[in-house]
Amino acid sequence: MTNVALSTSTPPPPAKSGSLEINGISKAFPNVQALTDVSLEIRPGEILAFMGENGAGKSTLLKIINGDYQPDSGTLSMNGQRLIFPNPHVAHKAGIRVIYQEPEIIPGVDVAENIWVGELPKRFGVIDRRRLNEQVRASLKEYGFENALPMHLLGDELSSAQRQLVEIMRALKSGVRVLALDEPTSSLTDEEVDRLFALVRRLRDEGVAIIYVSHRIKEILRLCDRVAILRDGQLIAVRPAAELNDAEIVRLMVGRELSSIFQRRPAGTDREAIRVEGLQSNWHQDVNFKINAGEVVGFAGLVGAGRTELAKVIFGELPKTGGRVFLNGQEVNIHRPDEAIAKGIGFAPEDRKREGLVLIRSVLENGSMAILKQLSRFHFVRSRLERSVVTGFVEKLRVRTPSLDQEVGKLSGGNQQKVVLARWLAAKPKVLILDEPTRGIDVGAKAEIYHLIDELANSGLGIMLISSELPEILGLSDRIYVMKNGRITGELAGKEATEESVLGLAITDQRPASSTEAVAAEQKGNTL
Amino acid sequence: MNQTQSKNAAPVKRGDPLKRIVGAIGTDNLSLIFALGILIFLVTAVSGWLGMSGGDKFFSWQNLLNSLAQAIVIVGLIAIGETVVIIAGGLDISVGSIASIGSVVAASVLVGVGTVGTLGILPAGNVVIAVAAGILAGMIAGMINGAIVTALRVNPTIATLGTLAAFAGFAFLLAPDGKPVGVMTQPDFTWLAQGRFLADAGFPALGGAKWTGIPVLTVILLIVALLVHILMRYTDFGRAIYAIGGNATAARLAGINIGRVKVAMYMLSGGIAGLAGVLLAARTTSGNPVNGNGLELQAITAVFLGGAATSGGKGTIAGTFLAVILVGVLNNGMNLLGFNTFIQRVALGLLLIAAVAISQWRQARAERARTRAEKH
Fold this sequence. Notes:
The complex is a heterodimer.
Chain A: E1 20-29, E2 32-42, E3 46-51, H1 58-65, E4 73-78, E5 81-83, H2 88-93, E6 96-99, H3 111-115, E7 122-123, E8 126-127, H4 129-142, H5 160-173, E9 178-182, H6 190-205, E10 209-213, H7 217-223, E11 226-231, E12 234-240, H8 246-254, E13 272-280, E14 287-292, E15 296-301, H9 307-315, E16 322-327, E17 330-332, H10 337-343, E18 345-348, H11 352-356, H12 363-367, H13 372-375, E19 376-377, E20 380-381, H14 383-396, H15 413-427, E21 431-435, H16 443-458, E22 462-466, H17 470-476, E23 479-484, E24 487-493, H18 499-507, H19 515-527
Parallel strand pairs in A: 3-10, 3-11, 6-9, 9-10, 15-22, 15-23, 18-21, 21-22
Antiparallel strand pairs in A: 1-2, 1-4, 4-5, 7-8, 11-12, 13-14, 13-16, 16-17, 19-20, 23-24
Chain B: H1 17-25, H2 27-49, H3 61-87, H4 95-111, H5 114-117, H6 127-150, H7 156-174, E1 181-182, H8 187-194, E2 196-197, E3 214-215, H9 216-234, H10 236-246, H11 248-253, H12 258-284, E4 286-287, H13 295-305, H14 317-336, H15 341-375
Helix pairs in contact in B: 2-14, 3-9, 3-10, 3-12, 3-13, 3-14, 4-6, 4-7, 4-12, 6-7, 6-12, 8-12, 9-10, 10-12, 13-14, 13-15
């Protein structure tokens, strides 16, 4: 509880005045311990990087600092004073701001009003436009953004970069002392990144404490003074950036024992289940891959790499702009999910509650939803048949439910996921897409689902497994495709596939080379 | 059915008979029956206290058969179609205007006047063809609603608010010179409203009034209610409606063709509204372009009162049917007790708000229960 910094190589210096001290913060969500006893000091005049895999706890920590979440235990303090943030507003008043990737912008209102929202200067009860514009123009000029952020633009005309600038200006206006940036460069062009870095350095020199969250190792090493690495909710190391290199950072981020994870024995055939050639969409450029019957093929990558979108494009939920898809060697043209299902594709989406299940309907209805046509005669659902089919899969998957008529929303997360899987098993697809099949599920249920995936593949299905948990994807997949920025950046099989090699391909720090890519990346930032 | 139930799943508890009956009827419907009982008690008590007698009594054949049973039919029909739309998470405000169209179309086909009647396609004087034409006109109107909502992606409330106005105007355009079409000289047609079944059954008098038979109108309502109940409960279409209302994205990703289901649903709602319009023409002996005005409010009130969720995915035809009777008794009681129509309109508006408030409260409670269950 009392250790202020976990730095292993430098002795912790005494807390400077104005440092934000994080003391022993823990936070749990249903089924997952997001943070465990994290202690860290964020010092004024310093840029501190947060790094970690998806789900390592970076976002949760930022949200606690910003007052979006309250910690289960542990404290925040500054100058020896304890800080309690019941909501973001209080955190902002204390001079702490987190700039998220998609800041809240009011669409129909211009830049100046967006910056001053909530505290607009008034005269005789109406907004004092002239004073507002003068102030905003002066501060934009001071930081060199008068061209980057034209004042006449309305909220919905702003690019991602401009939205972030608005949010940063909001922070500066109210005298920010701790500024956190959450993956600020993911949708910026090179020029914008340079400008942002100049601003961040300037703020550091003015004595602001800066937290910089990014997956881009090169950027971190170029910009930051210290690097804090999180893994599975724990703070693994805090090191000066000068002492680190790419390989060391990846090692620290991963560093997990693989022995405890399920290990599948490959059982792929050479019969092709699905092949995708040159697929193009709003999110993808030239995606090529294939999955054979009996194969589990992992799709690794960072959040936002375009994996979920790839699944949805193939499933007909999102539009495809080019390329060809073959099922069992035959080209198919799919525009809607029902067509995909009819052709033999199943898709268990990432977000069970929003996309997977009709929570207020029963286990029975959710389980039979994809096969209603087969179960019906003259549009009448054959109730006996339906019950016996769904019962079969509910038993096979050991769904714990008091009855088939139970509302799905009243089951636990693991059992909800099993209902989704039961639906797709009932549909007997040839290709099954599983998007984060074990997200938010407890360990026991996870193991059951791993065994099930293994069994399904052995029975001849081609499985496309999207997962952000590296051990899961390494343990289950026969082959792995790694995606980044809407492209497949590599294919790994057998011994080549390690946490380091996958993560290396997922975060190799190449800036988008052409301007079209930058545009695509920006669009992605806007639409996701 | 339980023989096929999962062995892992705990067997359904066979509680005492009372619990089973409550379970079968549903707690929501039970509270409606309870409210209905209280309301009838109030109406009879107050009317007794005011010293009313004869046909003025609530419990008289005169009131039950002629006033109440007939009065609920039109609103009841429209509410049944509306229930389907609301369960799917949509809304159809245009049903009143569709009823007007159905009314004008049926009457003008029957008499052979107006735009539709003088087309020369449909023979005049045939009741079956006239009724079918009215229903068909309603289905076409519903198809337009469905197309606007699905193809143009207009929010259903706004879309049908627009067509409410458009269809109302269209009803006038279809009528000859915008005037009502009289059907008084068509006894086969007016039989739909004035006919009685079992008129000679010889039941004893009630409340000083003779048994006059069950109105044809009431029988039509019962048949339509039963058919739609079966549709919602036992067919893939009904399943799709519940799934779409519960979570449209999940339904689509499970292979339900949302666009097609929605168009079919608005056609169903429109067709039933068209039928209601036809019956209105029979009852008022005129195909009048203003016949359906204001019906949507009463219908929507009944649907929410009947337990449908404002966010969709929940609701039953049985619940709506009970709520229609409740609203009917309320109107009937206020009539008997001499409240004027202005007060009745205030009461109806307040009832709609109360019904939706109750529905929202139920949803919030269910949401809390789900969150608890999942944390557990």
